[in-house]
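ingest -> fold -> write
write: protein_1
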Amino acid sequence: MMDETMSKQQIIFEINKLRQQLAELEGLEEPEADSIRVRKELIVSGKILSKAFQHIPDPVTISTLTDGRYVEINPAYEELTGYTRAEAIGKTALELGVWADYEDRNRMLKVLFEEGRVSAMETKFKSKWGEIFTFLLSVEVIFLSGEPYLLHLCKDITGLKDIEEALRISEESFSKAFNSSPIPMCISTFADGILIDVNERFCRITHSQRERIIGHTLEETGILVSIDKQKEIIAILAEHGSITEMEVEFSTASGKSRLGLFSAELLNINGEECTLFLFADQTERKQLELEILRLDRLNLIGEMAASIAHEIRNPMTTVRGYLQVLRYNEKFAQEVESFDLMIEELDAANSIITEYIALASTKKVELKPTNLNTLIKNIHPLLQANATIQDKAVILILNKLPDLMLDEKEISQLVFNLVKNGLEAIPPGRSVKIRTYLAGKKVVLAVQDDGHGIDPKILPELGMPFRTTKEQSVGLGLPVCYGIASRHHAKIDIKSNDQGTTVFVLFSR
């Protein structure tokens, strides 16, 4: 009996307690009542829905449709924005300052009213501490206890956007580095070698136009590498994925041969395996190395000749003197021709020693203002006299020039040697042309013949001591010219084909 009485008392107590809670509920402000109603609706909808709302890792909120006041937020929203549930319930996102860009809010409302829902709209939210986040915002209209509410689901993509921005900056940096690089670069597909991009320097070195070579292979554009070298490159890339500074000789679209250090790296572009090629053009460097080597040889030979010339010339002078005396002795009247031959050979030997000495870069030069045209006109009678004997001619084509700092004797020797070579290269009845003109900041002396040209194989070796194609020559004429040019800070360039040869001497103004 006691147990039944206690049970009834407990029931009455619980009923009174519920009445009291109901009275308190009726006295709550509207947002709080909405919040409790929403919570009860979530609970009524099932424990699974309630747990999902509370434990979903992305921020989720429920707000009134009429004025957008929060009636429920999940813990993920609190954690990310920094606003507690107590701070957020009953407030709008605008009042909390959550919208980083007010235009995002207007855009969201426009889409919501026009389409009835918002799906994955990119927006920026601001936390309580001012930190900016990027979200994909989705909004749905839901009904709880017959009342319409807005369900906001936010997917934080801040990290992804940071990665995208870093990737964009990286791609932009690569693009700038690629296009402005002084090193020729190109990108092609690895499978078939089709060019998909080239930089400006690549076009300049290969004498190609970008729009004409994109979509073609290097072979199709005329930029050729030997077949064996191509196979070697493909094999190394397939095995190691990269190549570093392989020396490669290739020809340009205009047919010129170039020498370069070739590097390559496999990379993935939009899911396709591609190859990045880099060419460090070494053509000019190799030419410079050969020039330095040639000048070193010239200087060494010249210095050696200068050091022993005195010891050789003294006895030669003595012998020549005795030969001249004996030549006029009546006892040797029948040997005059022999004496003349010996004296001539001694003079030739002395001339060779003089040429040896002229090779030395340390030889002193006496530079003074001189007009190259005037110098050439002064020695032209001697040049023409030598040509006339051979039934040939020396023609002058001289343009107005400024004065240069020259050593007259040395430049005269240079012109004599070049004209002599030209005359030897042509048959009787032909002529050698001497031209002078301005080319930018250079004064150019050009000696041109219309002979059979120089063998391309020996063209790079011209200017080296003792390198000659003539039977009765020691091969010092052109090396002497190079030595003279070097002492005048000038450059010699030789162009030759089967139509003839032109030697250019370029003086700086």
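write: protein_2
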Amino acid sequence: MKVLLLELYNYREWTELLGEDREWKIQEVQHFLSYRLVDRVSQMGGALLPLRYDLFLVLADGIMNAKLTSLFRYAVRLSPVMVRGCMGHGRNPVEAQGEANDCLHDLEPGRLSLGNYEDSPVAVVHYDLNGFRDLTAQTSMYNAFVEVQKLVLDVMLRTYKLGGVTQYLGGDNVITFLNPEDVDGALDLVSTNVKAGVGIGFTPRQALRNATKALTEIRKERKVLWKIVSGQ
């Protein structure tokens, strides 16, 4: 599987130049960059995980290097600091990002390193907390948020061992990208409180769409707690 890491170089040093009344300014820049990059990566068929906001992870299977180069140049134009980027490859996203991370350490700012790697199928497990709306109404908005964060941490810790990378999407939605061969292990989290739609595709966006389709079918049928949808 292929992962591209984009790092905003010397980002912390830049934030310290903004003065003490800076957190709102940092939030503005972070969400602006995330919005623009998520949109651009999605148009390419990929998926972008903001992670720390100074380090973006791009699931890149099915995307040509020419498009990734264009993405890098776009990020350079948007960023308040210099950017550097590295592609990594591995059996799963964790291995791929590890290789990309090692590459970043030796790369000069402003540079992009891409290898010629084969594309692999992508799997996404989209977890959904059952009864989230009722939980919010019966307790409070923040209490429900805390419960979702417990799910996020649980998913992250368990699927990390499978080589999966996890992102909270908002609401009660949590996704994990992983090797399709490791999906069974990720379904151990499914319970009466959690359902999961699994999508498999040739690109990350296609896999995400299939996972959403699987969740929609679960809600309609109300017979199963997980379902797999694959293909185009």
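write: annotation protein_2
The domain at 122-230 is CATH 3.30.70.270 (Alpha-Beta Plaits).
The radius of gyration is 18 Å.
pipeline exit 0
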